[in-house]
Structure formats: C-alpha cells, structure tokens
Amino acid sequence: MNFPTDVRSIASINTNASGNCHFANVSARNALTTHVPLLWLALRYGFIDKSILVVTEGLGPQKFHGRVAILVNEHTASAGEMLAAFAEENGLATIVGTKTAARLLSGSTFKAGFGYIVGLPAAAYLTWQGKLIEGKGVTPSVPVELLPDDLLAGQDPQMQKAIEIVRGM
Questions:
Q1: Is 39 among the domain residues?
Q2: N or C: which end of the chain has fewer CB within 10 A?
Q3: The pTM is what?
Q4: Are 85 and 127 in contact (CB under 8 A)?
Q5: Which of 64, 141, 131, 133 is nearest to 95 (CA)?
C-alpha cells in the first residue's frame, strides 16, 4: 500500500469496551453441591496455554508510523488497551486522553449446573516489555481530561489536542 508522505491519522478507541464479560453468582447452597465439577473445570482448563501474540505485519517502517494519535479514556478496555499499549510501546502512535479502564484479563466461562455459569480469569496480557495492563491500565503520553460540561458545550478537548498533535507531525 502506498501512502502519501503527509499521512496522519487519529483513532478514537475511547469508548471501546471490547470483549465480552460474563459474570455469574453461585449461591452457597449450590456451590456446596457443585464443588467437584468446579474443581474438575479448574483442573481441566486451568493449564491450557491461552497465549496470544500481538505483532505488526512485519512490513518494516511505514510512512504513517509515529504519525498517529490514539484517543483513550476510562472506557477503553480489553482489546482497546492492547492496541494502545502496543502502539505506544513501539512508537507507532501518541496516546491522548485519560488512563484506560485497566480491565484486560482473558477469561473462560463454564456451566456450573442449576442454570449457573461461572466465569474464571484464565490469562493476563503482558506487553513486549513485560508491563501488566490489568489493574494498571494504559496511561496516555498526553493526558487530557474530557468533562461532561465540555461535551455539553460542544467541545472535545481530547480530539482537539489530537488534531493539534497530528498537525504538528
């Protein structure tokens, strides 16, 4: 793909809660009668390698690398956090906004009987530099708050800052 030399881009993933979360409660009464199947599920699926690898296509340096701003906020979660962390760590984009949700665990769900489903965390995501995203989130290199009053006034300071940044690239 041939890009002009002045390619700049803004990716807004600040409302991307991606991934699916399944939560279930197992009552104490049912937990007592289903502890053996739950143990079996943990032993059966707890040791499966759920590794994933995030890489580029390996096309080498591109004209748009470093000429991208990614907008994030407290609603950016899961795969959105993976994207932001990867882009920032590899110098592919400038991250603008507020700290992400810090919700990035892979999980599996299992039928537990009596109509219940149990969701278990199965894997954590680490960046290439070994940073854990779960519980910490991605902190933007350019922090910009977005307040409800700004939106009510028709303003988006995060987008305005991203435009300012890409224009200067």
A1: no
A2: N
A3: 0.69
A4: yes
A5: 141
Amino acid type, 56 = T
What are phi and psi for residue 134, nearest 5 degrees? -55, 125
Q: In the 8-state DSSP scheme, what is residue 98? A: S
pLDDT digits (tens, 9 = 90+) for 80-121: 898 899 889 888 889 999 999 998 887 888 888 899 888 888
Which one, of 85, 101, 91, 99, lies nearest residue 135 by Cα?
101
**Does residue 115 fall inside a structural domain?**
no
When divided into structural domains, the chain yields a total of 1
pLDDT class for 161, splitting at 50, 70, 90? very high
Task: Give the domain extent around 75.
Answer: 9-21+51-110+124-163
Q: Residue 65 carries which DSSP code?
A: T
H helix or E strand, kind and range, residue 38: helix 35-45
For residue 100 the two structure tokens come to 């992400």
36 part of a folded domain? no
Amino acid identity at 25 = N
Distance CA 19, CA 116 (A): 21
Cα 89 to Cα 40, 44, 54, 135, distances in angstroms: 39, 35, 12, 18
Question: How many Å apart are CA 69 and CA 166, to the nearest integer?
Answer: 7
